[in-house]
Amino acid sequence: MKKDLLTLQDITRDDLEKIFEISADMKQNRRTAGRNILAGKSIGLIFAKSSTRTRVSFEVGVSELGGYPLYLDQSKMQVGRGETVADTANVLSRYLHGIVIRTFSHEEVSELARVATIPVINALTDEYHPCQLLADMLTIKEYSGKVDKSIRLAFYGDGRSNMANSLILAARLTGMELVIAAPAEERPREDLIAGADNIHWEVDPVKAAEGVDYFYTDVWVSMGFEEERARRMELFRPYQVTAALFDKAKKDAKFLHCLPAHRGEEVAAEVMDSPRSIVFDEAENRLHVQKAVMSLLMGDKA
Ligand code: CP
Ligand code: NVA
Fold first, then answer.
1. Active-site residue list
2. Quick one: which atom of ligand 1 is closest to the CA of 124?
3. Is residue 1 part of a domain?
4. Stretch 252-266: mean pLDDT, rounded?
5. Distance 131 CA to ligand 1 centre (A)
6. Mutation test of ligand 1: which of 47, 259, 262, 266 has the most ligand atoms closer than 8 Å to its C-beta?
7. Is 3 domain-assigned?
8. What does each C-alpha distance from 163 to 170, 185, 258 come to in angstroms?
9. Which residue puts its alpha carbon closest to atom 7 of ligand 2?
10. Residue 192's CATH number
11. Residues 162 and 248 in one domain
12. Is 60 exceeded by the pLDDT of residue 302?
């Protein structure tokens, strides 16, 4: 593995298999596996945005690996008052053994990782959310037995969001078929999908559902985009994941969502709360994959 996990471009298919293997062990033997991997180590968790799953799963994860999780509200740090990211990285590298960061600008996370001598994990930026995708891929592997070109996943909504971007990188990594159902105004980034014939942009939400194994959606208004709320509600309305879409999909199609969910917006309540919805298995897997990643990047032994 590389020193940092900033996007899925930082990992290889072999790394992914290793993460799956360790995650499965962490999940099966939650009380015992990796208990001392972070013993004597302190991991800083810097958050500039709200979080339920990411914060809790990382704090619990560090603790279960025997380390000390240090939650840092970025608005209370000096970096919010003009200290440079580079100086912050230098200082934190003298105290901590790893940094997990959720913030707005992806460049800020890249700069932090560039200067820090300790591993940095991206816990969501405006552009990417790699930890979420690792949990999603583990969930697909658990339900389908594999994550490869035999899997067809359709993402509905904002084709340029951190989730859409991350799904594109996941499709590039695994070869799975990815359809992004999105309006032209928020179509997937050309630079990310260029040259990948397993990744498709589809304006028609009904067509996008054809033969799908997994439906995936995310909020229409991501953190930091609140001022665009009215425009986004209008734009994405035709892209709600409804029960009717499942008629076009494979018989056993499932529903994924990174959460938090807004019933009646990006997903109909009858889908979110149906047996097809595997969102809580998906959320649980955040804990297991992140423990695996921390053990590989920050642990003494995997
Ligand atoms: N999916 C996810 O990252 O959730 P939180 O925003 O609650 O951390
Ligand atoms: N796209 C969402 C994901 C939340 C986990 C956001 O950035 O707010």
1. 102, 129, 132, 218, 258, 286
2. 3
3. no
4. 98
5. 10
6. 259
7. no
8. 10, 17, 8
9. 222
10. 3.40.50.1370
11. yes
12. no
pLDDT, mean of residues 1-9: 97
Ligand 2 neighbours, Cβ below 6 Å, are 124, 161-163, 218-219, 222-223, 258
Give yes or no: residues 175 and 262 share one domain.
yes
Three-state SS annotation for the chain: CCCCECCHHHCCHHHHHHHHHHHHHHHHCCCCCCCCCCCCCEEEEEECCCCCHHHHHHHHHHHHCCCEEEEEEHHHCHHHHCCCHHHHHHHHHHHCCEEEEECCCHHHHHHHHHHCCCCEEECCCCCCCHHHHHHHHHHHHHHHCCCCCCCEEEEECCCCCHHHHHHHHHHHHHCCEEEEECCHHHCCCHHHHCCCCCEEEECCHHHHCCCCCEEEECCCCCCCCHHHHHHHHHHHHHHCECHHHHHCCCCCCEEEECCCCCECCCECHHHHCCCCECHHHHHHHHHHHHHHHHHHHHCCCC
Q: Cβ distance 98 to 118 under 8 Å?
A: yes
By DSSP bridging, strand 68-73 and strand 42-47 are parallel
Q: Judge whether 147 and 174 are in contact, CB under 8 Å.
A: yes
Spell out which residues line ligand 1, taking CB within 6 angstroms.
51-54, 124, 132, 258-259
Average pLDDT (114-124) is 98
Task: Indicate whether 275 and 157 sit together in one domain.
Answer: yes
For residue 43, the CA-to-ligand 2 centroid distance in Å is: 23
φ/ψ of 39, rounded to 5, equals -60, 130
Q: What is the mean pLDDT of the chain?
A: 97
Which percentage of the chain shows pLDDT scores above 90?
Answer: 99
Q: What is the domain range of residue 234?
A: 131-282
> Is the pLDDT assigned to residue 57 strictly greater than 70?
yes
Contacts of 256 (CB under 8 A, 6+ apart): 136, 139, 140, 153, 214, 215, 216, 278, 279, 282
Q: Which two tokens stand for residue 144?
A: 């389908």
